[in-house]
């Protein structure tokens, strides 16, 4: 089975028309999909793990599909990044969006003068580890669901971890990034993942040796950012240079990079106006399409998919790069 099994039949005319109109893309799916919410509880940690699944209805044990597990940025929820879930599932790729209750949308509620403090607390080591555990637990739940409705129709050889911002850090931890704290190594690797989508990854707080932190990462990755991809809160700033440093530090596996002109850090969320209304819409389509091209390269050996994508989107690209290896050849 090809990843994005009917991707060649995507309704290109709809996409181009929407782009020309400079409005958010709501392309008709090429594969029907369903949306299912789960309200799981990890009893061992006494922690809720809500999740939303975008599911290609054509999936079956005889026709298993790839699965992306997606981790939101700080202050997000399972409802976010819907443009990715809808696009991927409409192209035959299931997408499970995990909500992290210690760093989710609840941070925005309460006394507004306490927001910065709540954000800083949510960015601490304890929550970073808990987020990776959420991912592991949610994947377990889906693959072993009692009805076997979903798990039996997922291709276990095509599991992809993905995330934006804080979720990109969660992604890196889940695919092998290791941080040493007080002489102890924090290791959250989930070896079931065979590829990763990393969108706007911030640096690891208090760490400077990225090469050491990322030395154990051995799966293909794709990195997506923008020239104005900046995180800025009182006492903290992270820009494009940090995203590129993470890309450069990964040296043991094939990787791809896409940098869009302009934009913003939150442009990759479901927000419609940030980064420029016209660019925002284009970047959402381009990012969703880029991931599918990446999956083709990883799982089908179709490197040409990335080249075609680059040619299609060069007007809004500042940089695009593919460093191939055995899994992208």
UniProtKB/TrEMBL annotation:
Residues crossing the lipid bilayer are none
Q: What's a Gene Ontology MF term here?
A: 1-alkyl-2-acetylglycerophosphocholine esterase activity
- Gene3D superfamilies, A to Z: alpha/beta hydrolase
Pfam families, A to Z: PAF-AH_p_II
**GO annotation terms (biological process):** lipid catabolic process
Entry keywords, A to Z = Hydrolase, Lipid degradation, Lipid metabolism, Signal
Give the signal peptide as a residue range, or say none if absent.
1-27
Name the chain's protein. Platelet-activating factor acetylhydrolase isoform II
Lineage here is:
Bacteria, Pseudomonadati, Pseudomonadota, Gammaproteobacteria, Pseudomonadales
């Amino acid at each position: 089975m090809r990843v994005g099994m009917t991707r060649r039949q995507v309704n290109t005319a709809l996409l181009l028309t929407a782009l020309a109109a400079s409005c958010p893309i709501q392309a008709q799916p090429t594969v029907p999909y369903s949306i299912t919410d789960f309200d799981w509880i990890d009893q061992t940690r006494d922690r809720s793990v809500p999740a939303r699944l975008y599911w290609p209805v054509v999936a079956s044990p005889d026709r298993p599909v790839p699965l992306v597990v997606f981790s939101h940025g700080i202050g997000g929820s399972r409802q976010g990044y819907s443009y990715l879930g809808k696009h991927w599932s409409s192209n035959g790729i299931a997408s499970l969006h995990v909500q992290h209750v210690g760093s989710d949308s609840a941070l925005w509620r309460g006394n507004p003068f306490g927001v910065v403090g709540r954000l800083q607390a949510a960015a601490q080591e304890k929550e970073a580890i808990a987020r990776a555990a959420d991912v592991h637990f949610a994947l377990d739940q889906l693959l072993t669901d009692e009805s076997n409705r979903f798990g039996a129709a997922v291709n276990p050889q095509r599991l992809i971890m993905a995330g934006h911002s804080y979720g990109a850090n969660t992604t890196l931890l889940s695919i092998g990034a290791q941080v040493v704290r007080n002489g102890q190594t924090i290791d959250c690797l989930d070896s079931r993942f065979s590829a990763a989508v990393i969108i706007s990854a911030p640096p690891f707080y208090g760490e400077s040796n990225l090469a050491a932190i990322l030395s154990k990462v051995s799966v293909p990755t794709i990195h997506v950012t923008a020239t104005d991809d900046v995180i800025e809160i009182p006492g903290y700033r992270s820009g494009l240079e940090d995203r590129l440093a993470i890309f450069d530090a990964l040296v043991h596996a094939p990787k791809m990079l896409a940098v869009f002109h302009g934009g913003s850090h939150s442009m990759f969320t479901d927000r419609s106006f940030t980064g420029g209304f016209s660019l925002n819409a284009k970047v959402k389509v381009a990012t969703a399409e880029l991931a599918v091209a990446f999956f083709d390269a990883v799982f089908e050996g179709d490197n040409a998919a990335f080249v075609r994508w680059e040619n299609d989107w060069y007007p809004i690209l500042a940089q695009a790069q593919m460093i191939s290896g055995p899994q992208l050849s």
